[in-house]
Amino acid sequence: MAETLGELASVFLPQGAGQGRQSCDFQFNHGLQYYHMTASDSDTKQQATAPSNFIRNMINQDLESGKHGGRVHTRFPPEPNGYLHIGHAKSICLNFSLAQEYQGQCNLRFDDTNPAKESQEFVDSIKDNIRWLGFSWSGEVRYSSSYFDALYDFAVQLINSGKAYVCSLSAEQAREFRGTLTEPGKNSPDRDRTIAENLDLFARMKAGEFPDGAYSLRAKIDMASPNINMRDPVLYRIRHIHHHQTGDKWCIYPTYDYTHCISDAIEGITHSLCTLEFEDHRPLYDWILHNLELSSLRAVSDLADSQYDYVLPEQTEFAKLKLNYTVVGKRTLREMVEEGIVDGWDDPRMPTLAGMRRRGFTPASIRNFCESVGVARAESVVDLGMLEHAIRDDLDKHAPRAMCVLNPLKVTLTTFAEDHLEELTMSNHPKEESLGERTVPLTREIVIDRSDFEEVPPPGFKRLTAGGEVRLRGAYVIRCDEVIKDASGEVTELLCSVDLDTLGKKPEGRKVKGVIHWVSASQGVAAQVRLYDRLFSVEKPEGKDVDYRECLNPDSLQLLENCVVEPAVLKSASSNFQFEREGYFCFDAVDSTAERPVFNRTITLRDSWSGN
Ligand code: ATP
Ligand code: MG
């Protein structure tokens, strides 16, 4: 079995996946204007030490050739229309880590061109998630919407150079005119409007004279292009709608394709990394930038007053992170929230960062996972077991140990007096001394887990049996002298005697193999524990003819209401614990009350899904 994340990665990812920047089918024929920096400082830049991938190789080459003036400037560009998920974490780790490794910069830019689905709530949660993952963006948070004025001016520039026109085709007509994958499109009847007419109409679109959909601004490229994205794509549409950042200032909004490349250019981004679905959009990305005056882009850019020669950003695509047993599309996640399939975006079963955080995932475990998954151009599906391994590995090393009884059975230690209270000292971690020690109170009445007692033990049972002995973890060996049952025959209490000569030493003249966990009944704290498991029970909960609603794991949440946890847990500086013999758990800060703490199971001690 693979032991490390790296080994697991090699099991699940195709070998040699993702080599080199691929060229795209479509070639634009406008003069490429690459400007080289006069004095390259690439020699002084630290080369990446992390595992190589095609993007790091590309950046190393760019630094050697001085292509972007020896700079590395990336960005993470979320659309604030939902919460971030584990797929986004891959992009975040990639962009921010590259900037760190190369002593470059990484911006956070909200790609907020579609106000209908966006909100401040999502903006706030995204910022919070990125900080939580341990990254900080360069300078202020950016918003594409803060470039709306510049974007408008550039659109006017395109109109003036005959590269854009105002089109009056309805959405449906535009679809008809666009053609298909096998047939070229047809020119819009408005394609040859005069520049003056276009300028006038575009200004009136902005002024709010027309209703939604009456006009759009389109790039004049090629309706016969084999790449449909190049068939006179829409640059601006009319939307009389309030924007979370710009209020009611605008009633025309630029499209993603038009906005993204210009935003990159304004921010002086060097490497614009995105996922594969944008590969076919790259020619458009380049077309727009190369059809604008470089000097005017530079003039509004962050590099306007810098020593650097101005070089246009370049887009490079990598494969999305896909996980089996998981859906990550924001649209589906939103549906699951709205339909009440889960209890909100931060439900611990959600693959959102907010959900994973509440589930007890640590930032380090997610970063390690993303690093081990690697970056490739080839699509692949990563086994969820890898993510689970990452969190288990991190918590095994860093989570303090504690005892919590999930399904309590009362045990009276008859050797002790009524008021017996013994403070036992236990180490918080078997290997990590820095995690310190805690005191665990032992009293006459304790609880053990029901499953740790069998009146008639099955073969091989090493825990407590009627008349048998077992060691209480970190304490004494006890013997079950009497089993008390209720009228229905259910065991309600065990009376046990304590061998006082067994604290920290073996019992005389006999072997006691079993060790069970326990908690003082009077000193322990009543808690609710939520046993979370995978949300889906099938490997591919999404796809053609698959409704994810029918793939839900009915046992993804089991509520345990009567658990008892040792008191030290509530005073701990950590919110993640290994509850001995039960799994890794975390304190749920949302639903816990002063009277009753709630703990979420992050992950079991061992993988029960792999079939091994
Ligand atoms: P979804 O597909 O879940 O709706 P999205 O791509 O629409 O997500 P954005 O907010 O546009 O979400 O994404 C921000 C950045 O995160 C983009 O650069 C996008 O390419 C990247 N990203 C989104 N999903 C993944 C994923 N599964 N793996 C890696 N990167 C991703
Ligand atoms: Mg998107």
What structural keywords apply?
612 residues; alpha/beta; Rossmann fold; Glutamyl-tRNA Synthetase, domain 3; Ribosomal Protein L25, Chain P; 3 domains; seven-stranded mixed sheet; 15 helices; 22% strand; elongated; disordered N terminus; binds adenosine-5'-triphosphate; binds magnesium ion
Descriptive report:
The chain is an alpha/beta fold and 612 residues long. The protein folds into three domains: 29-144 and 260-373, HUPs (Rossmann fold); 147-258, Alpha-Beta Complex (Glutamyl-tRNA Synthetase, domain 3), CATH 3.90.800.10; 401-603, Beta Barrel (Ribosomal Protein L25, Chain P), CATH 2.40.240. It has 15 helices and 29 strands. The strands form eight sheets. A seven-stranded mixed sheet has the order 12-27-28-29-25-26-13. A seven-stranded mixed sheet has the order 23-20-21-22-14-17-24, with no helix packed on it. A four-stranded antiparallel sheet has the order 4-5-6-7. Helix 1 packs across helix 13 and helix 8 (256-266) crosses helix 9. The structure holds adenosine-5'-triphosphate (ATP) and magnesium ion.
Residue fraction in strands: 15-25%
Rounded to an integer in angstroms, the radius of gyration calculated over CA atoms is 31 Å
Kindly provide the name of the CATH class of the largest domain: Alpha Beta
Integer tally of domains? 3
Q: How many strand elements?
A: 29
- Average pLDDT works out at 91
CATH architecture type of the largest domain: 3-Layer(aba) Sandwich
Q: Which cofactors or ions or other ligands sit in this model? A: adenosine-5'-triphosphate, magnesium ion
Q: What name goes with the CATH superfamily of the largest domain? A: HUPs
The proportion of residues forming helix, as a percent range, comes to 25-40%
How many DSSP H or I helices?
A: 15
Please outline the major beta sheet: 7 strands, mixed
Decide which structural class fits the backbone: alpha/beta
Q: Walk across the major sheet and give the strand order.
A: 12-27-28-29-25-26-13
Low-confidence stretches: 1-48
CATH topology of the largest domain: Rossmann fold
What is the end-to-end distance? 9 Å
Shape: elongated
